[in-house]
Every structure is written in structure tokens, then in C-alpha cells.
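User: Let's play a game. I give you a shape written as C-alpha cells, and you guess the letters that built it. Ready? Here's round one.
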């Protein structure tokens, strides 16, 4: 069955063009991948471009994203070259880095290297997290997301996204992360489990907002 949210990777380069609302530009290497499928779940239309080079995704015109999986983090020198080149792209520069038991020490080293830079390092634990984060990055310009001036610690980098949930302040956001550990776990949590952390009213507001976006 044809997916109307996906545009095949045969189109010319989108360089210099404005990304339409509701669209995300992905590197063609992610065509028909789990990453692209995680994004179409949000109703986004995917524009595939085979000229993006080291950039994996443009959630918006002003944001460039590199996705670093466990193997990329372990191969530190190659990733470092990508990070150095990333500084030439967009206003907001983001590395989505896979957090696993194996990659943890490399992830922490990457964060230390990025301290004081304008590159934000955000952890993900599963492919669904990638879809959630890219979706939020694309929407953040029209919401109350504050662009960081330096790389944030793990907790703060995820905290900025949890704060986008309606009715969630810093205290509730911290409790949600402590309880559920990841964005995907928060989004997939049953209403009753959310209510135990943030109360019935806020839990219902979060679920309603997620249904409207999904």
C-alpha cells in the first residue's frame, strides 16, 4: 500500500528551498527505514534528499540534526569529524545520540566535548524516541521552546522537550523523567500511570494533546 506521507528519494536537492509546514527533510539513506516510519506516525510528510551529506535530518529550515547510533558513538573519530562540520549548518544544531550500556561512556565523552558549544546533544533509547524528538524539534519554533546557547546535560536536554507538554511545569517534567526515563515511555504511559505523577487533570490534558497531534 502506498504511503501518502512519503515522497520517494528521486527528487532534486532541496538546498536553498524553504521546508513546507508539516514536512521533514531526511537523508535518502533513511528511505523506508524504521526512522522514517517513526516520523510518519505523526502525520508528517517526508522529503528525501540524497545530497544532504553528513546531515541526517532537517526538522525545519533553521535546525540540522545528526543521528548517532551506538556504533557511531563507539567510532569516536569519525563522529568528531561530522560534529566539526555540523557547525556550518543551520542555526540550531542537534545530535541525537543513542544511549545504551555499551555507548554510555562514549555518550558522556561526547557531551563533555560539546560543553560550551552551540551543539545540543540529546539522548534517545529507541527508534520511537527519534521520531518524537524530530517531531518536537520541527514544532519547537512555534511553541515555547528556548534554543540553548550551549550543550545541555542529559536531564536538561530532555527536560526542554517534556516542558512542551501542556500543563507541565519544571517540577512535573522532572518527576515524569524520573518515573518514565524516556519520552517514548511518557507518551505511551497509560492515563492512570501519568495521573500518579502529575495528577488527573494534567494527565488528561497531555493525553488529549497527544491524540490531537497523532
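Assistant: Ready! My guess for every position:
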Amino acid at each position: 500500500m502506498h504511503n501518502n506521507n512519503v515522497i520517494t528519494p528521486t527528487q532534486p536537492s532541496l538546498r536553498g528551498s524553504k521546508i513546507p509546514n508539516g514536512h521533514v527533510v531526511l537523508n535518502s539513506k533513511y528511505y523506508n527505514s524504521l526512522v522514517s516510519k517513526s516520523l510518519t506516525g505523526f502525520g508528517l510528510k517526508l522529503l528525501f534528499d540524497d545530497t544532504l551529506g553528513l546531515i541526517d535530518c532537517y526538522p525545519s529550515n533553521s535546525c540540522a540534526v545528526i543521528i548517532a547510533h551506538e556504533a557511531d558513538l563507539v567510532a569516536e573519530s569519525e563522529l568528531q569529524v561530522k560534529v566539526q562540520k555540523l557547525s556550518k549548518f543551520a542555526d540550531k544544531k542537534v545530535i541525537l545520540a543513542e544511549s545504551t550500556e555499551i555507548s554510555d561512556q562514549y555518550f558522556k565523552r561526547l557531551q563533555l566535548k560539546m560543553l560550551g558549544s552551540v551543539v545540543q546533544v540529546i539522548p534517545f533509547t529507541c527508534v520511537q524516541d527519534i521520531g518524537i524528538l524530530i517531531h518536537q524539534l520541527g514544532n519547537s519554533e512555534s511553541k515555547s521552546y528556548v534554543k540553548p546557547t550551549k550543550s545541555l546535560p542529559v536531564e536538561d536536554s530532555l527536560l526542554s522537550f517534556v516542558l512542551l507538554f501542556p500543563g507541565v511545569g519544571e517540577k512535573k517534567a522532572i518527576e515524569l523523567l524520573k518515573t518514565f526515563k524516556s519520552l517514548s515511555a511518557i507518551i505511551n504511559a497509560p492515563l492512570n500511570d501519568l495521573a500518579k505523577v502529575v495528577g488527573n487533570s494534567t494527565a488528561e490534558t497531555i493525553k488529549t494533546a497527544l491524540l490531537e497531534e497523532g
